């Protein structure tokens, strides 16, 4: 059974900045996906020097047990096992001199590796 939280405001399991949502929607559309149904899957997987790492991919539709939120027109899918590690996080898009890309600001992190790609809670 899925859980849906509309608008992604305070109290949402995960929030997304307007810039991150815009970048993700542009990528979804360039892949030919319907943004009314498809969305960005944010998940946690084993790996990295600190033990866990973030993953993102586009899915055509949510799974039955996903938590689904919508932020600035972007649907975000999070599975139950990942949610316990990333609840309260914010997804942002950074565009700097050395790199551009999505970044997760996670309040649950106790330690992370130097590159910022993996973490421990």
UniProtKB/TrEMBL annotation:
Any one Gene Ontology molecular-function term assigned to this protein's record: iron ion binding
UniProt domain Core: residue ranges: 14-117
GO BP annotations listed: iron-sulfur cluster assembly
Source taxon at top rank: Archaea
SUPFAM superfamilies membership: HesB-like domain
NCBIfam families named among the record's database cross-references: iron-sulfur cluster assembly accessory protein
Descriptive protein name: Iron-sulfur cluster assembly protein IscA
Native species: Salarchaeum japonicum
């Amino acid at each position: 059974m899925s859980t849906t939280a509309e608008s992604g405001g305070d109290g949402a399991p995960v929030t997304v900045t307007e810039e991150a949502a815009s970048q993700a929607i542009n990528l979804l559309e360039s892949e030919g996906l319907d943004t009314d149904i498809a969305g960005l899957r944010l998940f946690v997987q084993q790996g990295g020097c600190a033990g866990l790492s973030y993953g993102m991919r586009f899915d055509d539709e949510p799974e039955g047990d996903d938590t689904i939120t919508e932020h600035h027109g972007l649907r975000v899918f999070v599975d139950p096992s990942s949610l316990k590690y990333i609840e309260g996080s914010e997804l942002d898009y950074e565009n700097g001199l050395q790199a551009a890309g999505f970044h997760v600001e996670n309040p649950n992190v106790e330690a992370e590796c130097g590159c910022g790609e993996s973490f421990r809670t």
